[in-house]
Amino acid sequence: MALVLDDDQLMLRDTAGRFLAERAPIAQLRRLRDEHDELGYSAQLWQEMATMGWPGIAIPEKFGGLGMGYTELGIVLEQVGRNLSASPLEASALVGATAVAELGTEAQKESLLPAVAGGELTFALALQEGSRHQPRKTAMSALKQSDGWVLQGRKVLVFDGHTADKMIVVARTAGRPGDETGLSVFVVDADTDGVLVERVVMVDSRNSANVSFDGVEVGPDGLLGSEGGAYAPLQRVLDIANVGMAAELLGLSAEAFERTLEYLKVREQFGVPIGSFQALQHRAAKMYAELELARSIVLTSLQAIDGADDSLSALASACKAKLCEVATLVTAEAIQMHGGIGMTDEADIGLFIKRARVAQQTYGDYSYHLDRFARLNSY
Amino acid sequence: MVSLSDLEEFRHEVRRWLGANCPESMRTPVLSDADYYLGGSNPEFSHPDQKRWADLMAEKGWTTPTWPSEYGGGGLTREEAAILRDEMSAIGARSPLNSFGISMLGPALLEYGNEDQKSEHLPKIVRGEITWCQGYSEPGAGSDLASLQTRAEDTGDHYLVNGQKVWTSFADKADWIFCLVRTDNSGTKHEGISFLLVEMASEGVSVRPIKLISGKSSFCETFFDNVRVPKENLVGEEGKGWEIAKYLLTHERETISGFGQDSSGRTLAEVATEEIGLGADGRLEDGVLRRDVAQLEVDLLAFAATMDRVRDEAKAGQGLGAASSIVKYCGTELNKRRFELMMSLHGERALAWEGEHCDDGEMPRAWLRTKANSIEGGTSEIQLNIVAKRVLGLPS
Ligand SMILES: Cc1cc2nc3c(=O)[nH]c(=O)nc-3n(C[C@H](O)[C@H](O)[C@H](O)COP(=O)(O)OP(=O)(O)OC[C@H]3O[C@@H](n4cnc5c(N)ncnc54)[C@H](O)[C@@H]3O)c2cc1C
Questions:
Q1: Which chain A residues have any C-beta within 8 angstroms of a chain B C-beta?
Q2: Is there a contact between A28 and A84 (Cβ–Cβ < 8 Å)?
Q3: Is residue B261 over pLDDT 60?
């Protein structure tokens, strides 16, 4: 695959960019925040996204999706990043649907994926338990019963957990925290008895939840994938999720950079535009170069998902780590170069660093992925 | 039966030919600068097979795969050239010939030279018969290249050249030099510059080597004292040389950014594991170095992907603005980081300069040489200026 977008992909990028700038601009995120919106995203926007087929971009046609691929989903997520558009696209289409597609049986895919593709069903991944992403350390238990399992435990950072119809829950059917084996994945209706959801609005004004599972009963068809063998397929789901988050980080970094660049040209001090100062020019040029590297590794990684590249894991970790680094650099410089105005809530530029921080932390941060990259390369 | 597509057939043919013709000794990693074959009228060989390999490749035009075959080149399309590159790297084949003629002057002549100049010089570059050096920099004109002062006076039937160049790599070995000279002083500093080809054996040309901090002396000062240069050696129009100079610099930047790959073919992680060792948890025992290695490897991956993307976008007619500046800046800064880390990983062993069992100080010399990567061909600061002004449109 050539590392360029083809004509269809370029068109998708432009359409998605225009649509989101019009229908889900940063002003919308502000409104949702200031009005303490119950959903935390616009239901109407989500329906419009569904009409365009976005939730099903990466879902095969036989399961009701558009059957395009993750490269295309990544292209849309980059535009989502540019506009800081809140929607269930990441939690539900990028992560939830991928988990079903990677772990589920044919029957489960047939029953769940078309509804996700149509925008009627949303998912949330309930994975993390402590303050850091450590899938192997999962302690939550799933106790086998005669007819299914009983889930007991607590999850944090469940994105869109307060609105999702179904939770994808990672729990332990065997072994101890730290073991790779013994992890299993369940699909649980959010309104099942014993599921207690506590909404948490995050620093980026988007939604997450702490979810307690207190004696939650799951039937035999609630198991996604093999009992105790979820670790490997889950890693692949997380690889894909991380590349998707990296695409979003790329979009928000590129946007923050371009807004800053514009500011450097118009803001005057000492009688000249501040962008004429070489100290700032060089920092701007370095950011631009870093963004180009970031763009290359994101596209390479997206194509590696679609190309079923078996070295995806190391690449995905490299990609996420790189984007964490670049996003940190660019969003912090964006504020610095805006001076005092950059610190005000009124200016949009500060919203980028907030979203960046959350997206970085989600499914493993810089140090997690740098460490994982080294481990996967045996050092 | 499915017939093979043309490209696949080409790949088979290349694979077969390389298999039959690339000497075993030319399928080993290049260990030092001395291992590169530079050609020229007084060639130096570090291995007897070097000449045979270069000659065989030159016969097919594959020392310059994409140049037109009428000038001795391979006449290959980009796709075919990429296949050749793949197949060569698959067997670890060395590049048969490295020269400024191939990487810099050739592309400029193909774009701006007249028919006589092309048919005179290009085939000799392809076959490595003559070597070229680059006469751009002067004592007072480095980053500010356009303020150069070397004069070329039109005396009717020839130019009379006077002045001094500096930092002329390999001037002591080169047969010819391509120079920027001033033919007119009346306009702005970018006007009145001409692009001239000068034979080093001409009367009045003298060269003095300068030693580098790496202990090597490929560096020279070049003096022109009333040198007579035939007027047919002017490339392009008189006074319009700046455009050619810039075109050539683009090629130079892309070449330099590819320098300094680890010659042994081992990854940093492999070197690190060997030198430092893994702890019981499978991690490198020095946590700080482990982090440095991982960060650099991630950046190297992103850089390699960028090089691929630049190539693919160029092919698709899209393309980064000022790709050559970004690639030069990132590539050379990465090289420097890579060699800093290599020095740390090798520890005490990387410090030996001379003596027995120290490979002539290959490691520290290579490390010191990389410091020039972000100076030669335009410094990192100048690349950042170019990006800031031309790509980002920041004001002066
Ligand atoms: C190993 C090596 C090989 C070389 N080979 C050749 C060759 O074969 N032929 C040839 O013609 N030349 C060659 N060069 C010369 C090279 O192109 C110049 O050294 C380079 O362009 C820098 O010029 P300078 O050395 O005069 O440094 P200066 O221009 O004096 O720069 C000194 C410092 O000031 C900075 N600086 C200058 N202007 C600015 C500005 N506007 N903004 C910010 N910072 C600035 C520079 O970045 C640098 O850090 C070679 C150099 C090296 C090191």
A1: 2-4, 261, 264-265, 272-273, 275-276, 278, 280-282, 284-286, 288-289, 292-297, 299-300, 315, 318, 321-322, 370-371, 373-375, 377-379
A2: no
A3: no
Beta strands in chain B (DSSP E): 132-135, 151-154, 158-165, 176-182, 193-199, 205-210, 219-230, 234-235
Instruction: Give SS3 for A1.
Output: coil
pLDDT on residue B4: 62
Residue type, position B252, single letter: E
CA-CA distance, A183 to A234, in Å (whole number)?
A: 9
With contact defined as beta carbons under 8 Å apart, do A303 and A71 qualify?
A: yes
Phi-psi region of B72 (alpha: psi -120 to 50; beta: other; left: phi over 0): left
Cα separation of B12 and A48, whole Å?
Answer: 51
- Dihedral of CA atoms B124, B126, B132, B136 in degrees, nearest 10, equals 120
pLDDT in tens, A29-86: 999 999 999 999 999 999 999 999 999 999 999 999 999 999 999 999 999 999 999 9
The Cα-based distances of B267 to A368, A377, B220, B297, B300 in angstroms read: 22, 10, 34, 9, 11
Concerning whether B252 is annotated as a catalytic residue, the answer is yes
Is some CB atom of chain A closer than 8 A to the CB atom of B266? no
Instruction: Check CB contact under 8 Å for A276 and B272.
Output: no
| Mean pLDDT value across chain B | 91
Phi–psi pair at B313, nearest 5 degrees? -70, -40
Chain A residues whose beta carbon lies within 8 Å of the beta carbon of residue B143: none
Give A132's DSSP letter.
S
Q: How would you class B353 by CB atoms within 10 Å of its CB: exposed for 0-12, middle for 13-18, buried for 19 or more?
A: exposed
Tokens standing for residue B302: 């992103």
Residue of A243, A249, A317, A379 for testing the chain B interface, max B β-carbons within 10 Å: A379
Residues 149-178 of B with CB under 8 A from A: none
Reply yes or no on whether the pLDDT at B54 is more than 80.
yes
* Class of residue A191 by CB neighbours under 10 A (exposed 0-12, middle 13-18, buried 19+): exposed
% of chain B residues with pLDDT over 70: 96
Q: Which residues contact A48 (CB under 8 A, 6 or more apart)?
A: A19, A23
Q: What does the radius of gyration of chain A's CA atoms come to, in whole angstroms? A: 21
